[in-house]
Every structure is written in C-alpha cells, then in structure tokens.
Amino acid sequence: MANRSSLISDVDLRSPENNSAHHTREIDGKRLIVRRGQPFSITVQSNGSLPPKHHLDLVLHLGKRDEVEIKVQKERGAGDKWWFNQQGAQDEMLLTLHSPADAIIGRYSLAVLLMSPDGRILEKKDKMSFHLLYNPWCKDDVVYLPDETQLQEYIMNEDGIIYMGTWEYIKSTHWNYGQFEDYVMDICFEVLNNSNDALRNSQMDIEQRFDPVYVSRIIAAMVNSNDDRGVLTGRWTEPYSDGVAPYQWTGSVPILRQWSKAGVRAVKYGQCWVFAAVACTVLRCLGIPTRLITNFSSAHDVDGNLSIDFLLDENLQPLESRGGRDSSWNFHCWVESWMRRDDLPKGNDGWQVLDPTPQELSNGVFRCGPCPVTAIKEGNLGVKYDAPFVFAEVNADIIHWIVQRNGQRRKIRVDHATVGRNISTKSVYGDFRDDVTLHYKYPEGSKKEREVYEKAGRRVTDVPSESSEPGRLQLSIKHAKPVFGTDFDVIIEVKNEGDQDAHVQLTMLAMAVTYSSLHRGNCQRQTTTVMVPAHKAQQEVLRLRYDDYAQCVSDDHLIRVKAFVEAPGENEPLLTVTDIPLSRPEVFIQVPGKAFVCEQVKASISFTNPLPVPLKGGVFTLEGAGLLSSTKIHVSGDISPGQTVSIVVSFSPMRTGVRKLLVDFDSDRLKDVKGVTTVVVRKKYRNIFPEITECY
C-alpha cells in the first residue's frame, strides 16, 4: 500500500485495453504486452493535484541488471525516441506512451517519478514492467506486413500444417505452434537471453534487439544446441530411448517448457521439421511474421559445387564413407520470416529464409539465414546470409556414380530437375497446401532459369536442352500407394524404342532409407535377364513382403527402389530411383456436443491395429493450443491384430476460438500415427457477469 503522505497512490497499466489494441490479448490478459510504434496508455492515480511546477517523469530500463536506461521525453521529438503526453483531472492522470517503430524488444521496467521544480525525485513508483514486441501492423516497423489475412495466419494462428513425404506423394501433419500459450513468450525471451551473444555482452546484445535480422539470426542458432545453450538436440537415427523421438512431437510448447524447466538444458530430440516449427513459434510470438516451408528433394551441398554426388558399388549399394557429406533429403523444412532488409540493397525485402537445423556453420555458428528468397530466385549469391547454401538446396544437380573394383568412377545418371520440387507451405485461406516453388526459381528449362544458373556459376552446358534425344531404352518404376503392414508389388518397366529386340540385364533393389537418405538395410534384391521386343515394353515385378521390410524400415516408413539396366549396344547403363512412402492409419477423434470455455468436454479417441502382429507399449499423446497441455495416456496390454483400442479424455478449454486437438499414437512396431479434429470453443455468458473468453 502507498504511504499516506505520498501523492502517487497507484499506477494502472490498463493491460486488458492495451493488449486488445495491440493484438496481444491472446498472450496474456493481466500483464501489459504491447507492440512498438503504437501508443499505449497508463493511468496514474494521485491524492490530489500536482503542486505547481512539479511534474512526472518516466524512466525505462532493460536487462536483468538494468543495463539499458531510457528516459521518456515529455514531448514529441525525433521519431527514434520514446515520448509521452499527459492528460489529467484532479486525482487521475492519463499518460500515453509512444515508442519508436525501431524500439528494442524485451521486458521493460517502468518507473514513474514525481519531480520537484529543481529536479529532485520526490516520489518513485517503480515495481512495474511490461513487454514490447515487434509490430507487423505498424507501417514504420521493418516487419510491417500490409495484408491482414496474412497477419492472421503468420502471427496470430497457433495451428499449422507441415508437409512431409516425397515430392510425388506429399503428406501433411498438423502442428501446435502455441505461441500464445502460458509463459511461452517468457521462454522466447529466455532463449534470447541465453544466446552466446547475450552471455558475452548483455548490454550490446540488448541494444541490437531492435533489429529483426539480428534477432532472427540468434533464434536460428538457439533453436539447435550444437554450440550454445540451445533448445533442441538433433538426432537422425535410433535409438531415441533417452529422450523423445522427433516424430512423437506434435507441438512446440512441450519442447520450450521442458527446455526452460530443465534449466536451459537441450531437449532430445529434433529433426528438421521440429527445429523449423519451434523457430516458427518463437518468431511469431516475438512479432515477426513467419511461415514454415518444406522443400522436397532438398540438396545438402557441402563443397559448394552445385552437385550432389552419390557413389554406388557394383551391387548398387551406397558407398557413404567415400561420398563425402553431400546428401539429398526427401524433404527439408525451414522457415521464412517477413522483414525489410535495410542492411541490403533494394530488392531484398520480403520473405527471408531462416534454417535452424544444424547443417553448416554460418560465421562460426550452426545456423542459416536470414537470406532473401528473391536473391535465391535471381542467383544473387553474394547477399547475406548463406545464399550459396540455400541456392544449392533448391537447384543442385544429383549425379550417381558406380565405383568399379579398380576404383574408377563411371557416371550413370545425371538429374538436373529433381532438386527443389513442390516447395510448399500452408495456405492462409485454410488447411491446404500452397506451392511457392516459383518464388525460389524460374520455370524448369526456361531462358530465365539458364541466366540465373550462369550468374550463380552453374555451367549452362550442364542443363539439358529440350531437343536432346532420348536413349533407345527407357526405364521406369511404377507402384500403387502401399500401406505399412501389407505386401505389395513394384513394377519395373523397360521400354524399347528401337527397331531391334534388346537383351538386357535388369537389377532391382529395394532398401529401407530415412527421409534424409540414410541407408537402413536391404529389403529385396533381384537380377534377371529380360528380352524386350522392338517398340514394346517388358515389365518385371518386385514383390515386397511385410516380413522382409518390417525388419529394417525406418520410422520414416520409406522404401527406396533402384532399377539398373545394362544392354549391349547402349553407350551408358540406365538407372532410375524412386522412394515409396508407406502410408499409416489414422487416429480417430470425436468431440460430441458444444464446447464452452472453462467447461469440461470429452474427447473419444480410437485406433485400430492394421498390422498382422500385436503392438506393445502403446501410448497416446494429446495437445492443443487453448485446449489442454501435452498429455500422455498409456495403453494397458498388447493391441492384437485388427483390435480397436478406445479412450475417453476430459479437459476444460482455456481460450475461445477455433482450436485444433492433435493426437499422436506410438508403439513398438507402429509409430507416428496422427489424428486431428477441430474444436470450436464458445464464450460463456452469465446472467449478471460479463462474457468469459478465457480461464485464469
């Protein structure tokens, strides 16, 4: 309570009104959270009018030790200064604070001072604080995004869709970003405070946080834990027994909370989509418009020659130890953040690639970006940051070589067009896919594409012309959409376009791989001699049985099939490769009736075992922004083939709006089975009380 003799009796930060005006009501209704470049008001209660020639001063501090001090001017000055104006009656004064559009983001301590005519501090009210975020609604902020539909998606939407699989068979999985869940904002600033830059020089780090380029670069480094106190440890192969397998996560919030609760100790484990999703959560929370991107057939070009070289032995087995660290992933996820790049020449504003997956060093730290998407499309590889690496991810060639017994290499396949296919993101208009490939590259084979390649240093002669003649023999692989747990056939077709019959040796190999192309073991191999009549096609069948592939298939459920043909009279052998994703069942969810905030609802969840073997150690994981925190429910006993297991879960929604309930099921033999349903949470009305929109 205030001293009876004090003139200032109370300060009201007017959090509900300010937060609503600043689009931060979803983060917190009690604490003051505002956005830069937009005014907000506080009320100072006093025991009477101020004495003549006395006035109020406002002082702000940033940092744990108040490293940065800002004295708020009493009148409007230059655009880069804080200032306030004052309106008041006898015992109440309304102070409106104006922050510059490039103000430092962070937690501010606020002191209200009563000053004497000679400049002495007579009273001080200082146990107050607020948070300041970037403001994409403010035209003068470098993260300004003029489209309200995009703002609702890239700042306000807590639910997302991540695209995975292969470029031919794209699948989607839902993700809970949860950027407005309890204490997530605090953890986001905790992430910034634990960066190497912050630990080396806290004041210098804080003073740089006005710049979203700087902050996003810090986040890209801090989401992985390779060289700092980062959030996630990456792991691309089993075992995951000392942590959580990457495919089990359905949202960012449990990861961030676990990292903070454990004393900023890295959480195990993540892969590219998990790294990207956590970065998306943090950046949206801080106020930088951000979306998650999937690049299918994504190249990892270590040596910068725009070529991914795969070495095979004469049995078509990968020689991983001799092929360097180049690789091609079925898909790779990063994020794009929207900002104006005042540090670069004109033409580089807009979406910027940020990649927190630890692949290569950037200025000595595992991170990538921000890199303008426009620079990638135009081949401007001298632009900051990491443009050559990103360019290769969407443009590199893939070359297959056979290493013969004498050590000589034989080039058997050059693929100019596979890398960088169907680059995807969630649409702002609903739960469907937007293809953004043409944001990154010109149409395949176009004149403009050739000009970009020339500028980027890729030899134009390497790009095949439209008039190039196909060979006499054509090789292709066909298959249906197989379901994990079933036997299925793969059809290899050899087509003879020549005028003479062809006698060929056909080798067919099926192997289990991860989405990042790590070889997990062979499933089936078959070699046969085939006679293909002139102007005809001959088909061979490779039968893949569950009992064979179940022993080696990875958690990504991918089978890679290679077909290799050698024939007398052909200058070069033929090789074709395809990746076959094995589809999994779904978890079914029902939430009957209407859902109201703070009132209990029930969700019925069921899953049927499609495999011919029992499942052990079954566990459901549920979560949903505004619905419930991450919850695990273990299934007792084995789940027999064909058996349906059902559970009922009760929870009380915490916030109104259209919400997503996400469920993941995992067991010993079947993992990464997902389900999602939409829950519309309505306001609750009382006869004598105002409407209730969230629980506290």
Automatic annotation (TrEMBL):
Example GO biological process: nervous system development
Annotated Gene Ontology cellular component terms: mitochondrion
GO function terms (MF aspect): metal ion binding; protein-glutamine gamma-glutamyltransferase activity
EC number: 2.3.2.13
Gene3D superfamilies: Immunoglobulins, Transglutaminase-like
Name of the protein this chain belongs to: protein-glutamine gamma-glutamyltransferase
Organism: Oreochromis niloticus (Nile tilapia)
Limits of the Transglutaminase-like domain: 264-358
